[in-house]
Queue: 2 jobs
Job 1
Amino acid sequence: MGIQHPSNVKTEKIKATTIFDKFLPQILPQVEVLAKRIGAVYVFKIPGEGEWTVDLPKGTVSQGVAGRADFTMSIDSDGFSDMLLGRFDVAHAFATRRMSVTGDINLLGAFGSLLRPAGV
């Protein structure tokens, strides 16, 4: 059975723990070439759910902030879920300070490409 993308699951909300503790560890080996091409370290901070480091060069996902990051995103749980479900206006989120980032904003789009590989 293939890995089902979380946004394909009929739900009103996707928890960050589902993405970082279950989905990404399963999908990273399948998108290894793309992950290494992006070659960035991401930190996601979701108040009330946790913090995770996604190290694409190493192909790992770990809880907490592990060293330096090329891109850090802080976003509330509902915003994170809405972003994954395609119901999120990034410009509005910045304007209302619902989301903050440090690092290269282009890496956000690159990370999104990991979540949409063919066949997932």
Note: The helical segments are 16-27, 32-38, 77-84, 90-95, 106-114.
Job 2
Amino acid sequence: MSNPLIVGIDVHSRTNRTCLLDREGEPWGKRFSTANNRPGTQTLIGRLVEALQQGQFDSLRVALEATNWYWFPLYQALSQDPALAPWPQTFYPFNPRVTARYKDSFSDKDKSDDSDAYIVADRLRTYNRQELPAPFAPDLRYLSLRFLTRYRYHLVKDLVREKNSVGADITYRPLRAKMVTAGCHAMAWRGTTICSDSPAHQACHAGPIGPPSGLVRVVRAP
């Protein structure tokens, strides 16, 4: 029977929180944090090598919570580092929704980075062979195209949203101005005002004030 070291990494823009488990689900050492940069990644690799040697593990299985693309440089560093090369490696980027659903089964777990790293590792450990997704193995020929396509998709969404916002503003601005002017006339005709001292509002009363269009003044008998 294989004896893998199971690693769960909760990835953030600045830090990575890591939990190590054996195949029985027992923690291997304490959970720890490293910076999400090159020195922090080297520290993480050193901790993994130490655990692999001391625990006599025969392989390395790593699950990373795929938050945006913060996880990808870490994946590249771990998969290409020569210090980890002696051990067979598999990497699984987990959608945060997968770990969130799994976390619901733990009634005693609070929302913290410590528990999230454990949840990621334990979710990988408890997957059966039929449910476990294929390990992440990108085709380097199309990886740049994948990034560019994703970036273009977000740019198009932002452009459409801004066009719609500007178009709505251009369409409804004259209507809003007419509504404000009509409201000012109506209030002034009744002897009250909602106008401010701004030039735009003072222009409402530049001419004679009469009954607003569409309104009929009702005079009650004494």
Note: The first strand starts at residue 4 and ends at 11.
